[in-house]
Design brief:
single chain, about 450 residues, alpha/beta, Alpha-D-Glucose-1,6-Bisphosphate, Chain A, domain 3, TATA-Binding Protein, five-stranded antiparallel sheet, globular
């Protein structure tokens, strides 16, 4: 296995030329198709320049093993997810590296339900890939390719029909929103959805040409351009998505990024005022979402990081909403994947119904100081992590440890988590506490210990 390739249920991900190559992509597509055996597969991609090359490589691999293909073009990842069951496909592939810079690309694999494959599925695909026991077909039985460019429209129509979306109120209020789609797959879909809702949209970085004019992850440090545009145009809010439009971040009417964690918290608040049910979030998600849900009488369940894990948790607990604190809103009554279009429509409905400014709504949420950092994996990382488990018990009283995904340490005034990334060759450290000073102190202490 190429050491520069990240292989997980979140995708087969790497840097072009040093980890991810067309021949490798063709082989993985052939392994995926061999595992599926027969039927058709939906493929889509984001807008990054390498996408067309890798789409051809994926197509070759699938056709070679007799899999038919429905190519739905440059679309958000959630659009691929909803197209799969609707077309009665046996699976899907989205060619996207999500929040990673343009030198990265990836394959995201989905099952017949339009959900991320699980670890057992991935292990079977990896075994076929390694053994090269592909189900190659002769020239009469190669897969066929058809195109279908209607799926963004169909995605928008489905979102607008959700019972938690108040189209009439949004239209009457007349919101003005700046959208920064980082010239990614959401460049057309997200503005069009909002316009159909009756929102006045200012498009920023919505050319859809894959030119990532700033770092693509929708975190506060990368939203300065959006904040300036919100102030310039006197908009009610700004919305930013990542290149494959499954994550959504918010900027309030003053131009201030309020943090991607609050996207999910606000969406949970809106949905739970409509109906009752459980909430599922991952172990890297801020306590603000859990507190918000519990205040509204909902039970909260945690899962390891990874969309597949949250999906499994939502099904197990029959959750009404779930997601990840990176701006990933998951509304299972529609489909079980993260969806920036769903998130945007829910936030617009919340603002319209509350008749409040986004800054005011954000100010009513519990306040925590959350620091997210990452660093290269140090030598002896696992050994150091084991020592940290013992050391942390000396730092805090009443320490509670969750070992399902790296280590999450909960203490009376906050928590911190250390885990290997599924998408980059790094470790991630998240610290959250009820004071900024305490968060910084814990972050510094843990980072120093892991050097």
């Amino acid at each position: 296995m190429n050491k520069d390739l990240m292989v997980s249920t979140s995708g087969i991900r790497g840097i072009i030329g040093t980890g991810l190559e067309p021949v490798m992509v063709t082989r993985y597509a052939a392994a995926f198709g061999s595992w599926l055996k027969k039927g058709r597969v939906v493929i889509g991609r984001d807008s990054r320049p390498s996408g067309e090359m890798f789409k051809k490589a994926v197509t070759a691999g699938l056709q070679a093993v007799g899999i038919d293909i429905v190519d739905i073009g440059i679309v958000p990842t959630p659009t691929v997810e909803i197209a799969i069951p609707a077309l009665k496909a046996i699976g899907g592939i989205c060619i996207t590296a999500s929040h990673n810079p343009s030198e990265w690309n990836a394959l995201k694999f989905f099952n017949k339900n339009g959900e991320f494959i699980n670890k057992n599925d991935l292990d079977r695909i990896k075994k076929i890939y390694a053994s090269e026991r592909f189900s190659l077909m002769n020239h009469r039985r190669l897969g066929k390719v058809t195109g279908d460019d209607t799926w963004i429209d169909r995605h928008i129509k489905e979102v607008l029909g959700l019972n938690v979306i108040n189209r009439n109120k949004v239209r009457r209020v007349g919101l003005k929103v700046v959208v920064d789609a980082i010239n990614g797959a959401g460049s057309d879909a997200l503005p069009r959805l909002l316009e159909r809702l009756g929102v006045r949209v200012v498009r920023l970085n919505c050319k859809g040409d894959g030119d990532f004019v700033h770092k693509p992850e929708p975190v506060p440090a990368n939203l300065k351009m959006l904040g300036a545009a919100v102030k310039k145009h006197r908009a009610d809010l700004g919305l930013a998505c990542d290149p494959d439009a499954d994550r959504l971040a918010l900027v309030d009417e003053t131009g201030r990024p309020i943090g991607e964690e609050l996207t999910l918290a606000l969406a949970v608040r809106h949905v739970l005022t409509k109906s009752k049910g459980g909430v599922v979030i991952n172990l890297s998600t801020s306590r603000v979402t859990a507190d918000t849900a519990e205040e509204l009488g909902a039970r909260v369940f945690y899962t390891p990081v990874g969309e597949a894990n949250v999906i499994a948790g939502m099904k197990k607990h029959r959750a009404i909403i779930g997601g990840e604190g990176n701006g990933g809103v998951m509304y299972p009554k529609f489909h079980c994947g993260r969806d920036a279009l769903v998130g945007a429509a829910i936030i617009a409905s919340l603002l319209a119904e509350s008749k409040s400014k986004l800054s005011k709504l954000a100010g009513t949420l519990p306040i925590y100081y959350n620091i997210k950092s990452k660093a290269a994996l140090p030598s002896g990382f696992d050994r150091k992590l084991g020592r940290l488990e013992k050391e942390a018990g000396r730092w805090f009283d009443n320490l509670r440890i969750d070992r399902r995904d790296g280590f999450r340490f909960d203490f009376d005034r906050g928590w911190f988590q250390v885990r290997r990334s599924n998408t980059e060759p790094i470790y991630r450290l998240i610290v959250e506490a009820d004071s900024n000073r305490l968060s910084r102190e814990v972050k510094s202490r843990v980072a120093k210990f892991l050097k």
